[in-house]
């Protein structure tokens, strides 16, 4: 075996599992030798230079050793395969906007609360920078988690097909959970998680978001806020949770349920708008700056953005499912 | 044929060839074959095959239990010979039946569609 062939074979086998390397190396070497000798046999010229030229031609015909190595390797050549790709898209579509909005809201509130004389440029710069970082981090986390999940299931469908004995499939094996129902359940589950998080907001201390110094670690909500407002807030959340539970248990988004959900969302937004515009809802220590009014208005805008986005998404899903 | 049609044809030919090479390799390995001899056999039979896809394919077929291999070190150059196993022979026979049925179906379809 010439040095060139040896290098080529090493290039092929170095990415393959250790135990299969010697056999594959021997096989490729034998093949290269066969190909070279077959070509030399047709030629009268057997000088070392000519042999080297033929060897080079053979190696070029076998092609890129990395590509050949990939052919030998049976591992998937993708990070997120077709089985997990819809989940990946779905996660990006739902989680990234939520993360983006949350990041914008948090940055605006914190910047306005911590800087007594905020410049609009500074506010935009800080918010954009932090939001982009949050979005990239969320994207990376989603990609890594789903990619690793895809790998651990070993291509999912292909492995499932291999595990299933051929010829034993009956109609009882049919996966009756259609993707539409699964998506509704997943969305309802995610909605419930958000609702629980929203319900916990009045109890969350500012120290949890590293801004405890602003109000000595008290909550984000004004402690003097009337109990009626809090009860109303939780009542609306309970209604929203009931709608999500119906969606989850029935795995369907009937027009009536979607309509009730939309009405509850809008009613909740109206309730929050009134609450925010008629009294200090946020803790007074967080809103005692000159920008307190802007904070309230931005919070109201964010609430309506989320509500409108949610209504548009629901309407689009409903329209798609009707087809 | 326009450029898009040529591209589409190349893609479909590749798909067609991929399955054909597996079947042809099983048929050819009814007699013991080493890598290069199989490549030559297939090429001479008119089934164009690339070496860099054929050799990994042989290993995959071996893993599936359709081929068995043995190193022959008695010759001047050591060679790994692949032969059809019993289950490989059954698979090859089944594929052959399917092939004949497909050939007959396509011929009939072609005749029916010919004005």
* Helix-strand topology string of chain A: HHHHHHHHHHH
Report the β-strand fraction of chain B as a percent range.
Answer: 5-15%
Give the helix tally of chain A. Answer: 11
* Rg estimate of chain A, integer Å: 31 Å
User: How can the largest sheet of chain A be summarized?
Assistant: none
- Cα distance, first to last residue of chain A? 64 Å
CATH domain topology of chain B: Arc Repressor Mutant, subunit A
Helix content of chain B: 55-70%
**CATH evolutionary superfamily of chain B:** Winged helix-like DNA-binding domain superfamily/Winged helix DNA-binding domain
* CA-based shape of chain A: elongated
Count of alpha and pi helical runs of chain B? 4
Transmembrane segments (chain A): 94-115, 127-148, 190-211, 231-249, 256-277, 297-318
Keywords (chain A): Membrane, Transmembrane, Transmembrane helix
Pfam family, one (chain A): HAAS
Domain Transcription regulator PadR N-terminal (chain B): 29-92
Written overview of the protein:
The complex is a heterodimer of chains A (323) and B (115). With 323 residues, chain A is mainly α. Chain A has 3 domains: 3-72, no CATH class; 80-160, no CATH class; 177-323, no CATH class. Chain A has 11 helices and no strands. Chain A is elongated and about 100 Å long. Mean pLDDT of chain A is 80; it is low at 155-166. Chain B has 115 residues and is of the alpha+beta class. Chain B has a single domain (3-113), classed as Winged helix-like DNA-binding domain superfamily/Winged helix DNA-binding domain (Arc Repressor Mutant, subunit A), CATH 1.10.10. Chain B is built from 4 helices and 3 strands, in the order αβααββα. Chain B has helices spanning 3-28, 35-44, 51-63, 86-113; strands spanning 33-34, 67-72, 79-84. Chain B has a 3-stranded antiparallel β-sheet with strand order 1-3-2. In chain B, a hairpin with a 6-residue loop joins strand 2 (67-72) and strand 3. The longest helix of chain B has 28 residues, at 86-113. Chain B is globular. The two termini of chain B are 21 Å apart. Chain A binds chain B through residues 24, 26-28, 30-31, 33-35, 37-38, 61-63, 67-68, 71-72, 74, and chain B through 34-37, 40, 50-53, 55-57, 59-60, 63, 71, 77-80.
